[in-house]
Structure formats: C-alpha cells, structure tokens
Amino acid sequence: MSDTTLVIIPTFNEIENLPLITKRVREATPGVHILIVDDSSPDGTGELADEYASKDDHIHVIHRQSKDGLLGAYIAGFKWGLEREYQVLCEMDADGSHAPEQLHLLLEEIADGADLVIGSRYIPGGETVNWPASREYLSRLGNIYISMALGAGLSDMTAGYRAFRRELLESIDFDELSDAGYIFQVDLAFRAVKDGFDVREVPITFTEREYGESKLDGSFVKDSLFEVTKWGVEHRSEQAKDAVEDITPVVARLVEDTGVTKVPSKIGNAATYVGNLTEELWKVAKFTVQEKISDAKR
C-alpha cells in the first residue's frame, strides 16, 4: 500500500530539520508520499520544501498563509490527501521525534485491518529519549488521567505519530474537532473508539528534537485536561443514561409479571440520582485538575 500512503508533516521554522526528516522517510519507506504543510515559515522552510518537491515526485507541499496551529495543518493535509484518493494518511512531526524507521510498525497494523494506529510511548517496548524528566512526568500523568476519564483503553492518546485508514477520516466532521491546546489528538482517537473503529497502539521511541524549539507550551495542560474532564463526565453520564434506558423495559416487564407497583418510581429516583452524581463528579473533576495544574506549576 506504500504508493497510496501519505505522510503529512506540518512545518513552521523547521529549515534545519526538513532535510533530515525527508531523507529519512524516503530511505525508510521509499514508496510512500510526503506532504509538507508549511505555515509561511519566515526561515525559508516553505521555499526549501518547494525545491525538494520540484526534484522528487513523492514530495508535495501546501503553503498556508499564516501560522494557524497544528490541527489546522493536519486538517488541510487530510483534505488534500482524501481528495487525491490516498488510502492511508499518517501524522509525523518534522523534528525527528517520530522515527521514520518505525513507520512500518504502524502501516503493518493498518494492513492487518486496523483503522487507526497510534505510535505509543507508554506501552511495553515504547520509550522516550532525551526528554526532561518534568515533561515526561507531566505527559505520563496527563495520559493516565485521560485514560481514566474517558475509559478508551488507550495508553497514549496525546501521541502524534499516527496512521489512519481513509474511511475513518471520511467519517469525521473536522469542524467539530476541539482545538484546545493539542487535544484534537485525543478527540480524534476518542471519536474513533466510540464509533467502533479498530484502534491499536504500537510501541515507538520518541526522541526529543535536536534542532529548533518545541511548539508545545503550558497551555496544553490547562486547556487539554479541562476539555478531557468535560468529555469524560459527559461520556459517563451518557453511559449511565443508556444503562437506565436499557434496564427500564426489563424492569417494567418484571413489574407487569409480578404485580409490583413501586419499582418504576425507584427507577425514576435512580435516574435523578445519576444526574446529581454526574454534577458532583464534574465539580470534583474540575477541582482535581486545578490542583494538578497548580502542582505542575510549582
């Protein structure tokens, strides 16, 4: 499937990293195509990308007029790739933190039937290299919290090394994705899980960039965890509501068969209890996140 696979690489001021990442992708997976989505980098990254594209028909470039965030860059890349009938679309950082030499691990799972494959730092075999201990701790803590809040069964929902089958992306309304921090990665994975797609993780080695500056800032923690808390409470509330709706006909039939008349009122009381409990969970969750953010800042 290599010639129907598109690797999307967003760039902003990555002129030092662009030669390295394109060379590594082309050597590791010669058949795949590369789409560089540049946000009008003032350092000349876009012009260098055009130069590569003029010499290699496996390299393509999109120029965006302003720096509009990682989500916007990936949406532009997804739409470009879907319009051109690519069957597998991948996310990859430009800074070398995602090893192109491990891309085959993601593509092999796609070939085996997966709809979304996430390169995970936090499953057996995964690791991080040259990351500050404080940042790794915050990332691990955040992913543990996200996993507990959403119950999606994934260990690294914030990871940005991914391979999507086109059918999954075609099912997503890009306009609905959250742009709070980098939380769209969690949003995409959570939607895929809820919609019944086959989502898998493979272990990868995440290496801190050698050149340039990270685009990640502290807003990720505040914006992302608050958003995840809201989704988690809403999801648990929906599950509780569905459970009550599922059991009500059964109990009603039991009431009819046994002649007991007080059970329906208890069901109503249970539904009210679930609603009140959800509100309390939301209050507790918000307080917990605020505490985590305060601890991280200290």
Topology, element by element:
Elements: E1 5-11, H1 18-28, E2 33-38, H2 45-55, E3 59-63, H3 69-83, E4 88-91, H4 103-111, E5 116-120, E6 127-129, H5 133-150, E7 162-165, H6 166-170, H7 184-194, E8 199-203, E9 205-207, H8 219-258, H9 263-297
Parallel strand pairs: 1-2, 1-4, 2-3, 5-8, 6-9
Antiparallel strand pairs: 4-7, 5-7
The level-1 CATH class of the largest domain: Alpha Beta
Number of strand segments:
9
Q: What CATH architecture label of the largest domain applies? A: Alpha-Beta Complex
Mean pLDDT: 82
**Proportion of residues in extended strands:** 5-15%
Strand line-up in the sheet with most strands: 3-2-1-4-7-5-8
Structure annotation, total helices: 9
What is the CATH superfamily classification of the largest domain? Spore Coat Polysaccharide Biosynthesis Protein SpsA, Chain A
Task: Kindly provide the radius of gyration, computed on alpha-carbon positions and rounded to a whole number of angstroms.
Answer: 22 Å
Helix content: 40-55%
What are the segments in which pLDDT stays under 50 over at least 5 consecutive residues? 239-248, 260-271
For the sheet with most strands, the description reads: 7 strands, mixed
Structural class: alpha/beta
Dominant shape: globular
Number of domains: 2
Give the termini distance in whole angstroms: 49 Å
Pfam families: Glycos_transf_2
Domain Glycosyltransferase 2-like: 7-171
GO molecular function, one term: glycosyltransferase activity
Enzyme class: transferase
